[in-house]
Specification:
By secondary structure, the protein is α+β, with helices and mostly antiparallel strands. It has nine helices and 16 strands. Strand 1 and strand 2 form a beta hairpin. It is globular and about 60 Å long.
Length: 276
C-alpha cells in the first residue's frame, strides 16, 4: 500500500476503560486507510475523538461512509443539533439529549454509531458525556449478573420526554404515546459474544417487576454505568469530531444556555445487529 505524503495517525487512550483520541488529518482519514483500525477501536474504546480535524459537512459525510453503512437523517445527509428552531425545527424534542440515553431503543436494530462535529460552542458548559456499558457489564459482580441477565425492559418515548416535561398536556402525552413501546433485553448479547447493558431515559419499566423495584434497579444500574471509571466528558474545541459506538455506550449533552448559538453536526452509521 502506498503511504500518503502527509500520512498522520496517532492514537492515545483517554481513560483506561473508555475513549481514544486520534491525531490525524483530513487526507489520511478520508482515504479510508485506517477504517478497520477505527472500527476496532469503536468496539474496544467506545468513543473516539478526532482533534481539530475541521470537517466540512461533505467531508464528515465522506469520512462516515468509510466506516460502514451510512444512513441519512430525516433532514438529509446531516442533522444540525441546535436549540434554535430556525435551524432545528425539532429543538424541543432535542432537549431529551440532556439525559443519558442510547439512540434507537425504540427500533429493532439500533444505530451502530453516530458522529458529531463542533461548529459553534456554548459560552459555558455544553460538553458531551459518554459511558461504556460493555465495561460496566464486565465489572458487575457475577451474582448481580446472574440476577439481571435475563430481564427485559419496556422502552418508550413517553419515559424519555417525561424527563423534559414532567407535567405534559394530554395532547403532548398522546403525541409521545403514539410511537408505542419496545420490549428489549436489559443485557444485550452481541454477535461478538460480548455483552452490554441497555439503559437510558427511554427505559420505562422492567417486565414482571414491581414498579418501585423496577425503577430502583434502573436507577442503580444507571449510576453504576456512569461512574467515573466507565465514563468521560468531552470538552469541545471548534473542529473536533467525535464518533461513538451506539451499541455499547450511553451519552448525553451537558447543560448549557439554551438561548446560545451552539451548533453540532451529526452523521450516522446504520445498525448491524438487532437487540438480542
Amino acid at each position: 500500500m502506498t503511504t500518503l505524503a502527509h500520512d498522520v495517525f496517532e492514537v492515545e487512550q483517554v481513560k483506561p476503560l473508555i475513549g481514544a483520541a486520534i491525531t490525524s488529518n483530513k487526507e489520511t482519514l478520508l482515504s479510508g486507510k485506517y477504517a478497520k483500525d477505527i472500527r476496532a477501536m469503536l468496539e474496544d474504546r467506545g468513543v473516539i475523538v478526532f482533534k481539530k480535524v475541521d470537517f466540512t459537512d461533505e467531508e464528515q459525510v465522506a469520512f462516515t461512509k468509510t466506516l460502514g453503512n451510512f444512513v441519512q437523517e430525516m433532514t438529509g445527509d446531516t442533522f444540525k443539533i441546535s436549540m434554535d428552531k430556525a435551524i432545528n425545527p425539532v429543538a424541543e424534542y432535542t432537549k431529551g439529549a440532556f439525559y443519558w440515553h442510547i439512540d434507537g431503543t425504540m427500533d429493532r436494530v439500533p444505530l451502530f454509531a453516530s458522529m458529531l462535529s463542533a461548529r459553534r460552542l456554548a459560552p459555558v458548559g455544553g460538553n458531551t458525556a459518554f459511558c461504556n456499558t460493555y465495561a460496566a457489564w464486565d465489572a458487575l459482580p457475577d451474582e448481580e449478573k446472574a440476577q439481571i441477565e435475563n430481564l427485559r425492559v419496556v422502552h418508550s418515548l413517553v419515559a424519555a420526554q417525561l424527563f423534559v416535561e414532567p407535567e405534559p398536556t394530554s395532547a403532548q402525552f398522546e403525541g409521545w404515546n403514539s410511537l408505542g413501546t419496545n420490549e428489549i433485553p436489559l443485557v444485550w448479547t452481541h454477535m461478538s459474544g460480548h455483552k452490554s447493558l441497555v439503559l437510558g431515559s427511554t427505559a420505562e419499566y422492567i417486565v414482571g417487576m414491581n414498579p418501585i423495584e423496577s425503577r430502583r434497579l434502573l436507577i442503580k444500574l444507571r449510576e453504576w454505568c456512569t461512574q467515573d471509571q466507565f465514563s468521560l466528558s468531552h470538552a469541545w474545541t471548534i473542529g473536533d469530531a467525535v464518533i461513538w459506538n451506539n451499541t455499547g455506550t450511553m451519552h448525553r449533552a451537558e447543560a448549557y444556555p439554551l438561548d446560545c448559538d451552539r451548533l453540532m453536526v451529526r452523521t450516522k452509521l446504520a445498525g448491524e445487529e438487532a437487540f438480542a
